[in-house]
Design a protein that fits this description.
The protein contains six helices and twelve strands. The protein has about 250 residues and is of the alpha+beta class. InterPro entries: Bact_HTH_transcr_reg, Chorismate_lyase_/UTRA_dom_sf, Tscrpt_reg_HTH_GntR, UTRA, WH-like_DNA-bd_sf, WH_DNA-bd_sf.
């Protein structure tokens, strides 16, 4: 990467630096290649490290870079699409579901979820934790909150915890007739737990997809799925659900 001193420009200096770095990524670096450290990059471009960090953070948000623990900043592969539609209605855990059950516990959910779940503030729910892997790397984690009233026949299931318990809860949930599901998407930042599960640094940009599953006129389950923003992009259409697409010719889960 050659040295380029930045001239005075009307746009923010970090934004101009982002443009220069983008051109370098396109011409000089390959996917997975590690960038020079911040000190060297700042010296080459004649900017403060704070300015450089702003540019790198923007490129990470746009999916051009990845920051990996113990590795550094690498050039990211092309983003996969997160398709969010409204026509398809299916319970989680069905035959075409790409998520993998990890664990299940009975706990009181965060207070902010009591209202959408239509439960009391101290009422415990089944919390199913699931993960999603694509091309060998974690791309999403999910917490699925299921009120006890949605799965009343769990008492006879001999699976007290773990993935087996999670699958049992999802099987019971599918006994209900799903009326509809509602999706909402927002940009967020990874907390400590999400960062660990997604192999990201805390504070890394993520896409948070919240899905309400409605049955019998009330919320039967609430999913909060966290996608890595550096590898996923949003696409909207009539396909429904949340899917990861690798391109027009191939889909993988």
């Amino acid at each position: 990467m050659g040295t380029t001193q930045l001239e005075t420009v009307p746009e923010p200096k970090y934004w101009h630096l982002k443009t220069v770095l983008t051109e370098a990524l396109d011409s000089e670096f390959s996917v997975g290649e590690i960038l020079p450290n911040e000190r060297d990059l700042a010296a080459r471009f004649g900017v403060a490290r704070a300015t450089l960090r702003q540019a790198l953070e923007q490129l990470e948000l746009e999916g051009r870079l990845q920051r990996r623990r113990g590795v550094g900043t690498t050039v990211a592969p092309p983003r996969m699409g997160v398709s969010v539609g409204s026509e398809q209605h299916a319970w989680p855990g069905g035959p075409h579901d790409a998520w993998h059950a990890v664990d299940c516990r009975l706990e009181v959910p965060p207070a902010a979820l009591a209202e959408p779940l239509v439960i009391g503030g101290d009422e415990a729910v089944h919390i199913v934790r699931r993960s999603r892997v694509s091309r060998g790397q974690p791309v999403a984690s999910e917490l699925l909150y299921i009120p006890a009233a949605s799965v009343p026949d769990l008492s006879g299931i001999d699976a007290p915890s773990g993935a087996a318990r999670a699958r049992a809860v999802l099987r019971e949930l599918q006994r209900l007739e799903l009326e509809r599901q509602e999706n909402a998407v927002e940009l967020g930042s990874a907390g400590a737990d999400e960062a660990r599960e997604l192999d990201r640094l805390p504070g890394a940009p993520v896409l948070v997809v919240t899905t309400r599953y409605i049955a019998r006129g009330r919320t039967a389950a609430l999913s909060v799925a966290t996608y890595r923003a550096d590898t996923c992009r949003l696409t909207f259409g009539d396909s429904g659900g949340v899917e990861i697409h690798h391109g027009p010719e191939r889909q993988a889960s």
